[in-house]
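pinned: reference chain
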Amino acid sequence: MASASATSTLRAGLPDRYLTPDDLVELFQLESIETVYAWRKKRTGPPAFRVGKHLRYDPSAVHRWATERMAADEAA
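pinned: its structure tokens
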């Protein structure tokens, strides 16, 4: 896992690599990777794409998704 690099990648604003589901668990301090998979299945999480059998996330898409969630929370 790459918690520091996942966080610094998002803060830097320029992706230096695509994120993994484990990176999302670290980044959002989730209890389980199953949460990430449930988000994908329900289409409620950040958009992902497959590279072979592996899921990958574009850091800018994850940042956009998180920003939208925060805006929705503030509006509620």
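why pinned: The beta strands are 49-51, 54-56. The chain has a mean pLDDT of 86.
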